[in-house]
Design goal:
Chain lengths: 245, 245, 245, 245
């Protein structure tokens, strides 16, 4: 096997970017996002700091786009590259509106990314995760990012919640099927506001650490990644100390 | 309001048919299924026994087909008909195979019916359920049929389970949004084999009532329907006494 | 078998009393409560209306008191009486206070009733439920009353929640063990305020049916009781339409 | 504050001992077990390796014994010591037998340790965890060890499961109350067989890492301990890759 690589789908200013930086200290990383603005600076930073990163513009819910992305990864790292980690951090648009005002497209937004997109990503990465198992220091990891809406479906949240519940189901089914094949599948329930530039003004009165640290999430994902296969966690939840649950 | 009607999507030899017969004793019933063979005899039986039933061939995952079906209901019962009950009993194909052998279409089968189909059905019925609330003896009911796979995502069950988890999320979100509007939204986890001709030879050694009675499910749905709005159940599970859980 | 009887532990102005009245229309009922004031009028009413009821002052968390109560039931109905239904509706004191201010006795209040008390009640009733199975029209029923706190453990609710979670565990374990023996064990999550004299002034602004109807709960328990053994529900939740979940 | 200490209740050859060794690299550790044989060698090892450990024979379900233990900790570390971590790893006897054969004492075994014992431990440690918050590098941690039986109550497991469900409720209630006070409360579902001398011959055919590593659990607890208060996990599950769930 020529190389072990980590691929992160859904890179941006929050979790995806922090995870990319964290995993870049151990592996070459591939960053997928629809909009290259979401990874360009990060790719530059990682490469500039002595790591190795490439970004690929990808529509994760489109089979052709996903196929093209993984073809490109193959050209870059050789046909026999393996995956040490695959992180699915993409999310459909967060739509909150009265159910009867949802258009069909708005409703499908959640399931397109968290259902179909996660399926495409899992099918593209699992063969390389399985094949990497005998060569990887840590069990190869497939991590899915969930949210409060993965376990609670609130009023007016039908689009986001149906996608996130479907994603959690996918994660659980894959954990059971691929655990015995040496792949560590896990799911993280991110329950709170993540501290990124866009949320700078939110929750200010609650104090400087009332928002979830993206680097803290990345550390948690790294800790999942380094668990031995005798001792695997399927699911963690993450929230700031002030969260009301 | 001219009339209170019950509509059942996903009618066949099991739950859907039994629910149709049960609710036909109180309301005219509309039976939706893709294949008219699934409702023709039932329609005849109900009408022959002094009830009122119509069947409409419908692809529940297709917006145009669902719209056409509800147009037809309007022509039949008058533009101001209300819905006393809407039962979503449709299910995608039950596909069980290794994840890496699933085609995109096979995976989507679950989400198409249980995600998109349930969305279309809920959007088509909720306005008529809400408007019926002041006129209906019992809180108008929207019931979704789930399965073991609604709460457990087993290996090789990614298609079915993602659909069923999404359906449960939809049901919970709608229960919270439409409860205060007087509509009773509920979800039933059918956890076992239903006793229908196709399963005649299954579980024989476990005895004559080791399979779930479709009429028993219909009774349970009727009991949900007749709860007063002060005392609503969102979720029930149903299994035979021999089920291993 | 001389007689099928129903026994209800935890009788008072709410659920217990309503359940007693409901089941008294089918069976002689035995009402257990520590304080006879909680059942005296009800016993009189039921007997006066042509039913059959006896009340027995019982400390459900005390083995000797429970034994004495069931000895008395035996003297009343004959040594070979069977139980068609046993309803455990007792609850420890609802204590809400900062955890560090809880005395050991206050903390234990929840587990004494919902843990030890439920154990004693289940051990006293299950042999009579099992033996009644072949003779009872409906599968003999053992129903446990839970609360919101059965599935959510809120801050400052350690005593009540630990008891209620333990009770739910007991119910699930017994459902699995005694279902195959023909006994229907179930658990009800009562999620809201019950409409009784003490809560008359509560939630008034939310309207006349913003509180759960005790009679509605009793109907739900009766519906559980009449399920055939092919079609058993382990758990239901019950809340008013205005509940915020 | 003179000193930050870690205290572990329920020390033996598995999780408790591994956690003690792990935390001993950062803090003086206090090891509680009823039988000193369970900590004597470990205390010697840790002290011999340059760490600091004391063992105290304690019956965790007895208020007087717990009080005496914490008095002793105070004498040892000074009246103003703080707790960086408190790990509750005690468990009642694992009793598996038909429900009707359980004695009252056997049933209570689970609730005595996991209910009352956990209450006593939490009340004894929380004031020292809260007071340590401003002085501790990591948010002071209170970790509870659960099991498969914390989320599933199997047949014939009423004693163990009621205790473990109660413990999980306590953990959730405390997480909500003490998170805002800067204490990190968490719960671990250990779902599988732990690799200790007593289980040496178990699961051998499944391979050398088919049992959970106690050191792996200790690493997971340490990872929980080092989470920043912006990014706290309440619950993790842990199982070997071959576990059937």
């Amino acid at each position: 096997m020529s190389k072990l690589v980590a691929v992160i789908a859904g890179v941006g200013p929050g979790t995806g970017g922090a995870v990319a930086r964290k995993f870049a200290s151990a592996y070459p990383v591939v960053l997928l996002a629809r909009n290259p603005d979401n990874y360009n600076d990060l790719v530059k930073d990682i490469n500039g700091a002595g790591g190795k990163a490439i970004g690929i513009s990808t529509d994760i819910a489109d089979a052709g786009s996903v196929r093209a992305a993984f073809d490109k990864i193959g050209s870059e790292f050789g046909g026999d590259y393996g995956l040490a980690a695959a992180i699915f951090n993409a999310s459909g648009r967060f739509v909150r509106k009265p159910f009867l005002e949802l258009s069909e497209d708005e409703f499908n937004a959640g399931l397109d990314v968290s259902g179909k997109g996660a399926f495409l990503f899992a099918q593209a990465t699992l063969p390389r995760l399985v094949s990497a198992a005998p060569h990887s220091k840590h069990p190869p990891s497939l991590v899915f990012t969930g949210a409060t809406a993965s376990v609670k479906a609130n009023a007016q949240m039908a689009s986001f919640a149906t996608g996130k519940w479907a994603l959690r189901a996918l994660s659980q089914s894959l954990a059971k099927e691929f655990g015995p094949q040496g792949v560590h599948v896990s799911h993280a329930i991110i329950d709170g506001v993540i501290d990124i530039p866009r949320t700078k003004e939110w929750l200010k009165e609650a104090g400087p650490d009332a928002k979830i640290s993206a680097d803290g999430i990345a550390d948690a994902y790294w800790n999942l990644h380094t668990q031995p296969r005798s001792t695997l966690t399927w699911e963690i939840d993450i929230r700031p100390f002030v969260e009301k649950w």
